[in-house]
Design a protein that fits this description.
Strand content of chain C: under 5%
Order of helices and strands of chain B: HHHHHHHHH
Structural class of chain B: mainly alpha
Structural class of chain C: mainly alpha
Radius of gyration of chain B: 29 Å
Largest interface: A-B, 50 and 40 residues
Helix content of chain B: over 70%
Shape of chain C: globular
Number of strands of chain B: 0
Number of strands of chain C: 0
Chains: A mainly alpha (489), B mainly alpha (204), C mainly alpha (338)
Largest sheet of chain B: none
Shape of chain B: elongated
Helix content of chain C: 55-70%
Oligomer: heterotrimer
Strand content of chain B: under 5%
């Protein structure tokens, strides 16, 4: 009664890191259930960290030749490898930060590392997506895990509120994305990126496809928290447990930017003229809002939320340029952004007074007298976030503006964009410097505790050192980013 | 065939009508019941299209499982209907505005309706490999080969949803007696019964 | 006019006749099933069952029916009238429309659809609505508790029923009920190779029909009569008829999936003299007897034990057997081929 289709068994080798993480997640669930309850969380946490590192090695061992598998739904190229390395580093380091926090909050559960692994799996699927359906699937795997992580401290009202808000708004954005994808499918007749690119070579484009692209861009803008789809970010960043906020600030953002780049450039690259204004608008609005709205914040996690909105604005500027120079700048920017945020959140996690975690900016007062190394690292990171030379953050912005200026030969509009970018980064510098001022010049009412645990110190040190001594890393990073960016063209 | 078109209009009117009632009904339980009716009549439409497998799955999954849990929750909630109404009226203008914008957009798109020339061909592509057979068979042949990756991905989504539901809601209450059946069954006589020699006239 | 008659009226009338040919015997069967239950339980408990009205009590179901028919229908003041009345009708109708796809013999079936198993599964999964609606509309705590219990119970056991059906489908390679029976003609009846599944299915069928020992939705001792506590006369009768028709239906499905439908046990002389529908009837009768036997024998489950059995025992077991069966089919290349 069956007519068995003769199909080629999919080539699994391209997806080994993903398959590995998936199997690990299921195995860790088993370990968590059957290990003695007292130690389950710690054991699973360590194993999850180990397996993220193993997955990183597996990704690095891939040779970067462009391979598409699973009926062209999954693609591995240098771009995917570059972004997956960033995501895996981000996930692993934020997982490393989290163990002690949850242990001290009495909420250490073995599901946390499992969810982080699954979210990372989703991000890797997003980065490798080569089909609109595969894109959506990766996005949902990632988002669903993140909704749960945001609400992980379920006895805290703030955390559950963050989870619920994130869930409702995230579902809305997924809806918009799906609406757009269905429009594109309806008018182009395919969901595969390569086939879409073949259909949309330029020339006259059906209005349905334009509407579809705009909706897809809106959905993706939500995921990267670009203005005007940013409203969830401050609330979720503030309410979520701090290690989860750190995770949100790095890994999903990198993955979503990667997805944004691939979707805009691969299937819709031929009609870049049609969507460029949308991206320029998102970018400019994000830069400006990120700079101005952060000024009034007193909660440092909220401040980091606005800071990340601003940074996404700069990254999108590179996408708006759309040349391989621009994309390379975005990739370098995201790599540097990752290190700055990991270091900053390690510092935030170290902010404790009498064993309680605090997160207001005035709480940092007098840190320089209490703990000078931490204050110096925090200062370096703040300068780097503000884009002060010769720190890494400066180079991130520098390459983006360089790519923009190269375009300005073609049209004067680009110069205006670059000027807006520079101005808003000057405004942004104000609130980063304010933190430095509080740390060094304000009197402490009651000093903060010394950080406990080696992980945080290690991460702060690494991030600080990377941002301060960026020069030796600049060459290899640029080369890798250049190779990765070339894969999209 | 006139009967088929009669059936189509019956199901179509029922679907649209009950979908409307879902949002208009005053009582949330009635809303859920109308939602079920909407699902059910859409299943009827599927049958008319010859997609009997999808029709049955729609009934089994949405009506038989999802809507039951919906109803379960809605019945237990104590909802203040009056307050709900007020919110509805308050947000009505904004909602209507969004709806109108979407409608205009769709109208604009439809007015300039032209497909990419490759579209019909590309849409038919997955069907070419199928050959004849029931649509159950055809779906199985596609899902487990061409769309294997997505099928597995959907499985991961469900797994995460399960983990999430358990993490966020499951509480192990202290001080509650739990039944351990294997312990009950493995209990031996000498663990439960103690023989005492009771001297006459003294009690235990 | 002739065309209208030939194309529309006559086919329609023919379908109505066929439906009546199924429904009328079924109603009779339900009526006499109640008598059978009382007599069998009577014998098992060493007392006389209903034996007063008519010879051997054969007129008892008619008397019961007349009594229920003549009583007054009471609708409680706080009840939601529409839902309250629809609920028993829904239960009753669902118990009967499932019979549209049940084959009584090769070709003797009202509608021989491709997805027969799924249709049965879909209809049986709708059964919960009658009870939930009744419980909610009654505006009574007992009824509501019964409804909640039944919603959770039926949804839980449907999961394992679904997996059992999947196992059978893997072996047969078709969702058509006639194909399923014919597949048992060549080999053996499926209750032999799939014995654990057969047991799980039958126990889940008990839970699905809210029969003892899983009759918690109407647990008399705790909930008075559960979801039907506010019902009287014909509304109650519809529930009652629906419940017993569901028992017969579940026995019919078990017969088709596991006991070879209308096939005789051995395809040799004395056995294949009896016509197929009679064999079908005998098998269903046997299963109904087991239903009653279980009722007379087993005490009621506690609710947490019921849930534990469903989710922690049946679900993993049936899932495991799906995997084992598929593995065997793949490993020994037993793909059902046409």
């Amino acid at each position: 009664m069956f007519v068995m289709l003769q199909t080629v068994f999919p080539d699994l080798s391209a997806a080994t890191p993903e398959i590995f993480l998936f199997i690990v997640a299921m195995a860790l669930l088993m370990v968590g259930v059957f290990a003695p309850a007292a130690r389950a969380a710690a054991v699973v946490g360590r194993l999850a960290l180990l397996s993220l590192v193993v997955a990183l090695v597996m990704v690095l061992m891939q040779d970067g030749v462009k391979v598409a598998t699973f009926e062209n739904m999954f693609i591995v190229d240098r771009f995917a490898i570059f972004m997956k390395v960033l995501v895996l580093i981000g996930s692993a380091l934020t997982l490393l930060m989290s163990g002690r926090f949850f242990a001290e909050m009495n909420a250490r559960k073995f599901e946390y590392p499992v969810l982080v692994v699954l979210a990372t799996l989703g991000m890797m699927m997003m980065i490798s997506a080569n089909d609109l359906i595969a894109l959506y699937m990766g996005l949902e795997i990632q988002s669903l895990a993140l909704y749960v992580l945001a609400a992980f401290l379920r006895d805290q009202e703030r955390s559950t509120e963050a989870g619920l808000k994130y869930f409702v708004l995230g579902a809305l954005s997924s809806g918009m994305l799906l609406y757009g994808a269905s429009m594109v499918y309806g008018f182009a007749g395919t969901t595969q990126f390569a086939a879409l690119a073949a259909v949309l070579k330029g020339g006259e484009v059906a209005p349905g496809i334009i509407v579809g692209i705009v909706f897809i861009a809106a959905g993706l803008a939500f995921k990267v928290s670009a203005v005007p789809f940013h409203m969830w970010t401050p609330d979720v960043y503030e309410g979520a447990p701090t290690p989860v906020t750190a995770f949100f600030a790095v890994a999903p953002k990198v993955a979503a930017i990667a997805l944004f780049l691939r979707v805009m450039l691969e299937p819709f690259g031929g009609i870049a003229a049609e969507w460029r204004q949308v991206i320029v608008f998102l970018s400019v609005a994000s830069m400006i809002l990120g700079a101005f709205a952060a000024i009034r914040q007193n909660n440092i996690k909220r401040l980091m939320a606005y800071s990340s909105i601003g940074h996404v604005g700069y990254a999108l500027l590179g996408l708006a340029v759309g040349t391989s120079e621009g994309i390379r700048a975005v990739l370098v920017y995201m790599a540097i952004y990752l290190t700055m945020n990991i270091g900053t959140f390690a510092c935030i996690l170290a902010m404790r007074r009498q064993g309680q975690y605090v997160e207001q900016i005035p709480d940092l007062a007098g840190l320089s007298k209490r703990n000078l190394p931490m204050a110096i690292i925090m200062m370096l990171l703040m300068f780097s976030l503000a884009g002060v030379p010769p720190l890494a953050g400066f180079f991130g912005k520098f390459y983006v503006f360089k790519a923009v200026m190269e375009m300005s030969a073609l049209s004067s509009g680009w110069t205006v964009l670059a000027v807006i970018g520079v101005l808003s980064s000057v405004v942004g510098a104000f609130y980063y410097l304010r933190i430095v001022k509080v740390m060094f010049f304000d009197e402490a009412l009651e000093p903060l505790d010394l950080p406990s645990g080696r992980e945080l110190g290690l991460l702060m040190g690494l991030a600080g050192a990377f941002n301060l001594f960026f020069f030796p890393f600049a060459g290899p990073l640029l080369r890798a980013a250049g190779n990765a960016a070339a894969a999209l063209f | 065939m006139i009967i088929a078109s009669l059936a189509f209009y019956l199901f179509a009117i029922m679907t649209v009508g009950s979908a409307l009632m879902v949002i208009v009904a005053r009582n949330p339980v009635h809303s859920v019941l109308f939602l079920i009716l909407a699902f059910f009549s859409s299943a009827g439409l599927f049958v008319l299209l010859g997609a009997e497998f999808l029709a049955m799955i729609l009934v089994i999954v949405y009506v038989g499982a999802v809507a039951v849990l919906f109803m379960f929750v809605v019945m237990m909630l104590d909802i203040n209907f009056v307050e709900l109404r007020q919110g509805f009226l308050e947000y009505m203008p904004i909602g209507a505005l969004v709806a109108v914008i979407l409608l205009v957009e769709i109208a604009m798109v439809a007015a300039a309706w032209h497909f990419a020339p490759e579209a019909p061909e590309a849409m038919a592509a997955p069907l070419a490999t199928l050959g004849a057979g029931h649509n159950t068979e055809a779906l199985g042949n596609l899902i487990y080969t061409k769309y294997l990756y997505l099928f597995q991905g959907a499985g991961v989504v469900l797994l995460i949803a399960m983990i999430g539901a358990i993490v966020l809601t499951h509480r192990r209450r202290p001080g509650v007696k739990r039944q351990d059946i294997s312990e009950q069954v493995s209990r031996r006589r000498d663990q439960a019964v103690e023989m005492k020699r009771v001297e006459p006239g003294q009690g235990v | 006019m002739v065309e209208l008659w030939n194309n529309y009226i006559w086919p329609f009338a023919w379908i109505v006749l066929l439906v009546l040919a199924i429904v009328v015997p079924l109603l009779l069967a339900v009526a006499y099933l109640t008598l059978l239950e009382r007599r069998v339980m009577g014998f098992m408990q060493m007392r006389w069952g209903a034996n007063v009205v008519g010879p051997f009590g054969l007129l008892q179901p008619l008397a019961d029916g007349a009594k229920l028919f003549l009583k007054e229908t009471i609708i409680p003041t706080g009840a939601n009238r529409v839902v309250f009345v629809i609920a028993p009708m829904l239960t009753f109708i669902l118990a009967f429309i499932a019979w549209a796809v049940i084959p009584f013999d090769d070709g003797l079936v009202l509608s021989d659809i491709n997805v027969g198993v799924l249709y049965l599964f879909a209809i049986s999964s709708l059964g919960v609505y009658g009870i939930v609606m009744a419980g909610w509309a009654s505006n009574s705590r007992y009824a509501f508790l019964g409804a909640l219990r039944s919603a959770a119970q039926m949804v839980s056991y449907e999961v394992s029923i679904g997996f059992v059906m999947v196992t059978v489908l893997v072996v047969v390679g078709s969702l058509n009920l006639t194909d399923i029976v014919m597949a048992q003609k060549e080999g053996m009846w499926f209750f032999i190779p799939l014995f654990p599944m057969f047991v799980i299915f039958f126990i889940s069928a008990l839970a699905e029909t809210n029969r003892h020992p899983f009759d918690l939705p109407e647990a008399e001792a705790e909930l008075v009569a559960g979801y039907q506590v506010e019902y009287s006369s014909m509304t109650f009768a519809l529930f009652f008829l629906g419940e017993y028709a569901n028992m017969i239906l579940m026995s019919g499905i078990t017969t088709i999936l596991f006991l070879g439908g209308w096939l005789p046990p051995f395809d040799i002389a004395p056995f294949n003299w009896l016509p197929g529908p009679l064999w079908f009837f005998l098998k269903v009768l046997f299963l109904l007897f087991v239903f009653i036997w279980v009722r007379a024998t087993l005490p009621r489950y506690r609710y947490d034990q019921l849930m534990r059995l469903g989710w922690k025992v049946f679900l993993p077991l049936s899932l495991f057997w799906v995997v084992v069966t598929s593995a065997v089919v793949v490993a020994f290349d037993l793909f059902p081929a046409k």
